[in-house]
Predict the structure.
Amino acid sequence: MTTDANLTNNAGQGARTIEVDVAIVGGGLAGSLAAAVLTRAGYRIALIDKRAVYPEEFRVEKLGGQQVDILRRLGLLDAFAKEACAFDTTLNIRRGKIVDVSQSQSYGLHYAPMVAVARGLIADPTSLIVDQVLNVTAGRGLQRLTLASGNEVVARLVVLATGMAGAIPHSLGIKRRVIVERHSLAFGFTIAPADGAQFAFPSLTSYGERTADGIDYVSIFPIRGGMRANLFMFRDPNDPIMREIRREPKSTLLRLMPGLRSHLGDFKVIDRVQSWVMDLANVEGHLQPGVVLIGDSFQTSCPAAGTGVSRLLVDVERLCTVYLPEWLKTDGMGTEKIAAFYSDRDKLASDERAFRMAHFRQALTVDAGMRWDLRRRLHFLRRNIRHRVDAIRPGWTARLAGMLRA
């Protein structure tokens, strides 16, 4: 916790030196969650971001599955649930026909409010320093961060949570390696029934109908102000279809996915279309004393696979509740400590799954070869059979799967 006791004059020039246990660079979701977990555990934290209020950005807008489980374990879920729109049932369709129905607690919330919730969970609000990091000097001992204001932060560990912004990592010799350039596209917009009523489903996922369209799926779920539509595609960002989606989202969506018409009825798009192009990338040269990377700073994920926030949360949970408490018990912050986090079994599994799912979703969506055509048919057939069996004997397929795993 950064209090006046942690501040000293710097060379008598009016600048300050702020002494903390951990300096976190980047106040998006990853950095803010890490700050919340650590301050609630009693550590002195400096969360440094140039924005006092995180701006509106099109990023993750839904929490579910493993993400909910981790937030619950960290004791943070209730705060997110309070601000979000909760739903637990999703109707899954393809070509207008029901594939199955998912039952899982999920929450719809725009990214900026999501970050605001995370920042609101920081035990000491003065931990947030609105400033810009100009330079980081790192080593086995103390780490020093020079800020644009002239102030300096001295910390035992620096956590880089800068997302895909690479200035500070690059200055440390950490290089971003693009594995697949422009791997996927995501679009976001809000819809509402034209007659002011409500849609007939709590949440809906509609999968692409033709491989040539490059549509993985559109997810429609409740969010404050309406029903949010997240459309995920594997297409060239320069394809004319991208402009059509931005200019005429309703007619373009129904043309590409005519099976949606019977489920949505007459609807309208009530805000502007936002878009996002994602590269698949990771980093090299990251094993350094005194510095650790988390979230998108370390590795990016395919939005369609839904693994980005899961990876982020695994990073936060493992670093802040397992490794960092042990590291701070002894002097120094050498690479032997940092390497333990990067080689953590849960982290490795999460990172590997993210890449694997990115390639799987792309192949399942656009690969027109015989092998993937058969796999695509079997994928949806298995899900539909399981759904039909569960309608007759609820829970039977889950029990059978558990017996087979035992």
